[in-house]
Structure formats: structure tokens, C-alpha cells
Amino acid sequence: MRTEVIIIGAGPAGLMLGRLLELAGVDAIILERKSPDYVLGRIRAGVLEQGSMDLMDRAGVGARMHAEGLIHHGIELSFDGDRQRLDFTDLIGRHVMVYGQTEVTRDLMAARQAQTIYDAENVELHDFDTNPYVTYTKDGVTHRIDCRFIAGCDGFHGVSRQSVPQSALNTFERVYPFGWLGILVDKPPVADELIYAHHARGFALCSQRSPTRSRYYVQVPTDEKVEAWSDDRFWDELRARLNPETAEALQTGPSIEKSIAPLRSFVAEPLRFGRLFLAGDAAHIVPPTGAKGLNLAMSDVAVLADALIEAVSEKSEAGINAYSAKVLDRIWKAERFSWWMTSLLHTFPDTGAFGRRIQRADFDYLASSRIAQQSLAENYTGLPS
Ligand code: APR
Ligand code: PHB
Fold it and tell me: For residue 341, which atom of ligand 2 is closest to its CA?
């Protein structure tokens, strides 16, 4: 079998790239190791920057997002109970859209006409310096697909980045000494906007999926076990970390999902190896505190799609030659912002008295400076691509 582009991974990065190539008439096959239900079953964040909203519209899959997504004009930061709202629309004339990553994935899957091979096991990449091809097994049969380019959109644990010789790859990593314990509950959100809370007991986040479904997180040590957290213990801990009025307003109930996610910052460089390109979580990981994971994956594939469309139509290789440097510039800025939000809002075992004072001063500066608030608003709503 032969195609122009093989995309490894049917997460939001792979599906959006597949959609943009399909609309441009470029043949592309997506190879996904899991089933469609598994891919859709993963609970992930859901804050879209303007750039990601525009890309959903460009891809012709924005209708349900506009119909069901929630426009948010700001967020609230809470520091040991002191509250500061950041009105993005007043500060910089922008907003974000709360629309779950699962819904983005569902919309892209529904729109896809071209071939997606699910349950593709043992995916292996070959000769991506010269004449690339990929092999995989399905139902016990080994298959080979030849192509011109491979897009590695297979996430942090995927095969694509692992296929790159160590000597050709630089990686930069910060693993945080805590994780996020998150629950999903069918109760109205505690507030109209997201609340990011710093507290001496640890970070907390009040988020939402719809007017009737909420998502809450509390910071826990990395080695914490989810079994150790009953719903009641979760609600008590969340209340303890929020401003008393917010805690009072919290509508609690039985969790329908509960899990712990580790926090890390990770970047691989470069992001092109001959005819192999990395995008999304295969290339970088951000801690979720800045709501950048999905948006970075979207901005990567917007650049990669244009570059591959240009190269396949033999107009020029300028785009594919510039891909790595161009997206890494935006990736490092989003890494900085996500690291900064994480440093401001979490309690670190080794912070110490001086560190806590600095966190407090950081918050007080934010609360007192319109310029500082505009900077946060610009980064949160999405830097220009
Ligand atoms: N072969 C085929 N498919 C694979 C392989 C493999 N060896 N390894 C992983 N995959 C698939 C996974 O099953 C998954 O469906 O690649 C897909 C990668 O999807 P994501 O992990 O969602 O990564 P990405 O599309 O880059 O989306 C990034 O996801 O984790 C969030 O915060 C992150 O929001 C960001 C978004
Ligand atoms: C979420 O809704 O799951 C969410 C929102 C914002 C974040 C992280 C997670 O920064």
C-alpha cells in the first residue's frame, strides 16, 4: 500500500492533521494502536485558545463547539483564599472556549472520510531518512505502507520519538514532585469561570465541562494512590483549599471518574528527522496548569499541515525545512508560561519560607498590576502563532 503521509496516532493532533490534509486533497492514512472507543474514552482537559477555535472552523468541524462550548471571558486566581479575577476581554479583548478535548476528538473522528486503521499493533517506522515506510500488524497479519512523509502524533509514550536515534535527539525535562488528583461529577460548576487556587495545603482547580458537569483537581504527592481518596475526603480537601464563599457554594456528589495525573514539562529537539516530523505530545509535554497541552498540539499541526501540503504539491520545501524551529519557538513560550503558572500556584516540598514569600509577592504583583494581568491574559488566551 502507498500513500503521501502516514500519521501515527489518532489523538487530537493526528486527527486534526488528517483533517487538514484531507481538505487539501493530500492522501494520508492514520494508524492508531487503540480502538475508537478507547481513544474517545480518555478524560482530558478542555480549554481552547482563539487559535484552536479558528482551526476547528478552518477544518469545518466547529459547529458543535460553537453550539455547546462555553465562552469564558476570564479566570479567577485564589491565593490562600484571596481572590483576583482576570477579565481577559477587558484586559486584552480576548476570551477562551471551554469545550472538552474528548468532544474535539469526537468531532474530528466524525468528519474523517479518509482511512484510519485502528487497533494497529507493533507499528514500526523504517527508513525515514530516505524512502520511508511503516509496518504494523492487525489481526495477526503484518502490513507495510510506503509514503513520502511520516507525522509522529502518537503522544509521549508513542513509537515515533523512540524511533529517532538518541544521538539525533535532545530532550529537556522537569518532573514535578506532585500530581493532580482529578474527579468528574455531574453537578453544576461552583463558578461561571475556572478557579486556580494556591493554598498552603496544595493547589486546587475548579473547572467544568458543561452547566451540569464539573471537573475538580487537587494537588497530591506523586506517590499518592487514588484508592486512598474517597469522594468525601476529596470534597473536604477541596473545600479546605478554596476561598470560604467558594467552598460554601460547592455542589458535591458521587464522582463518575477519578484519576491521578503526574506533572512534567518536556521538550524534544529538533522535531524533524529527514521525512519524519513530531507534533503534539510526541514532541512536548506541559503541566496542565496553563491549559496549553491541546492548544500546542493544534498549533503544531496547523504549521505542519501547511508545510506538508506545500511539499506534497511540490511547490516548495520551505515549510518543512522551517517546521521544527517555527513550532519550537511557540512551544518554549508555552512551556515557560505553564512552568510559571505551576510555580506560582503549587506548594513544593522544598519551597521554604523565602520561596513562599516570593509566591505571595508574585500573586500580589499580579493583583496590583494591569500590565502583569495583561501578560497572563495574553499567554493564557494564546500567543500569536
Ligand atoms: N502506534 C499507534 N498509535 C499510537 C502508538 C503506537 N505505537 N502509541 C500511541 N499511539 C496513539 C495513542 O493511542 C493515542 O491515541 O497515539 C495517540 C496520541 O494521542 P494523544 O496522547 O492525545 O496526543 P496528541 O494527539 O498529541 O494530543 C495532545 O493530549 O494529553 C493531551 O494534554 C495533551 O491535550 C494534549 C493532547
Ligand atoms: C480541565 O478542565 O480539565 C482543565 C482546565 C484547565 C486547566 C487544566 C485542566 O488548566
Answer: 10
